[in-house]
C-alpha cells in the first residue's frame, strides 16, 4: 500500500555521502527527490515563492489548479471550433493560381486563373497568414497551459494531482462535446 503521508526531502546534500554502504538505487538517502505521491499543504507550485503556508492557501492553490485545467479544456474546445470554422470557410472559395507558360523562345509568360478549392483528404488548403497566425497562437496557448498542468502534477502532491483531475473532468463535462479528434 502506498504511503501518502510523507513529504519528500528537497534539501540537496553537499559533498559526498559519508555512508559507503548505501545503495546507489536508494534515492532518498542521497538527498534526491523521491518519486512517490505525498500529502503536504506547503508544496511549492511553479516557484519557491508560491508556496502555501496555511491550509486556506493550499485550498486556494487547489482551486487555482481546478480552474486552470477547466480553462485548458476550454482552450482545446475553442481551438477545435476555430479549426472547423477555418475549414468550412475555405470550402467553395476561389483561389488565384498563377500558371507559368513557356513560349517557343523559352521566355515564360504567366497567366492567372482562379479555381474553386475542393477538399481532398486532410491537406490541400493554401497558406493564409491570418489563419496560420491564429492557429499558431492557439497552439502555443494550449501547449503552455498543458505544460503548467504537467508541472503541477510532477510535484507528486496528491492534492494537486486530484485537483488537476477534477478540473479536467469538469472541463470535459462542459466543453468535451466541442472537441473533435480526441483532443489530448
Span of the ends, CA to CA: 30 Å
Note the quaternary state here. Answer: single chain
The fraction of residues assigned to DSSP E strands is: 5-15%
| Helix-strand sequence | HEEHH
Helix content: 40-55%
In DSSP terms (H or I, runs of 4 or more residues), the helix count works out at 3
Structural class by sheet pairing and helices: mainly alpha
Low-confidence stretches: 10-30
CA radius of gyration is: 27 Å
Q: Which features characterize this protein?
A:
single chain; 184 residues; mainly alpha; 3 helices; 2 strands
What can you see in these coordinates?
With 184 residues, the chain is mainly alpha-helical. 43% of the residues lie in helices and 10% in strands. It contains three helices and two strands, in the order αββαα. It has a two-stranded antiparallel ribbon. Mean pLDDT is 76; it is low at 10-30.
Task: Write a short abstract of this structure.
Helix content is about 45%, strand content about 10%. It has three helices and two strands, in the order αββαα.
Question: Which helices and strands occur, and which strands form pairs?
Answer:
Elements: H1 55-90, E1 94-102, E2 108-116, H2 129-153, H3 158-175
Antiparallel strand pairs: 1-2
Amino acid at each position: 500500500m502506498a504511503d501518502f503521508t510523507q513529504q519528500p526531502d528537497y534539501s540537496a546534500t553537499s559533498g559526498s555521502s559519508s555512508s559507503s554502504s548505501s545503495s546507489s538505487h536508494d534515492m532518498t538517502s542521497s538527498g534526491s527527490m523521491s518519486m512517490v505521491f505525498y500529502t503536504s499543504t506547503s508544496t511549492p507550485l511553479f516557484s519557491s515563492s508560491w508556496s502555501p503556508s496555511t491550509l486556506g492557501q493550499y485550498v486556494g492553490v487547489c482551486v487555482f489548479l481546478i480552474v486552470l485545467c477547466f480553462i485548458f479544456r476550454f482552450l482545446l474546445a475553442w481551438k477545435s471550433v476555430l479549426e472547423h470554422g477555418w475549414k468550412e470557410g475555405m470550402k467553395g472559395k476561389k483561389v488565384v493560381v498563377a500558371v507559368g507558360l513557356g513560349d517557343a523562345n523559352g521566355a515564360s509568360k504567366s497567366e492567372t486563373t482562379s479555381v474553386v478549392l475542393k477538399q481532398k483528404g486532410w491537406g490541400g488548403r493554401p497558406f493564409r497568414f491570418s489563419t496560420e497566425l491564429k492557429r499558431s497562437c492557439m497552439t502555443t496557448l494550449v501547449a503552455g497551459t498543458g505544460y503548467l498542468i504537467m508541472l503541477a502534477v510532477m510535484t507528486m502532491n496528491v492534492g494537486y494531482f486530484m485537483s488537476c483531475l477534477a478540473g479536467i473532468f469538469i472541463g470535459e463535462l462542459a466543453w468535451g462535446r466541442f472537441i473533435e479528434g480526441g483532443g489530448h
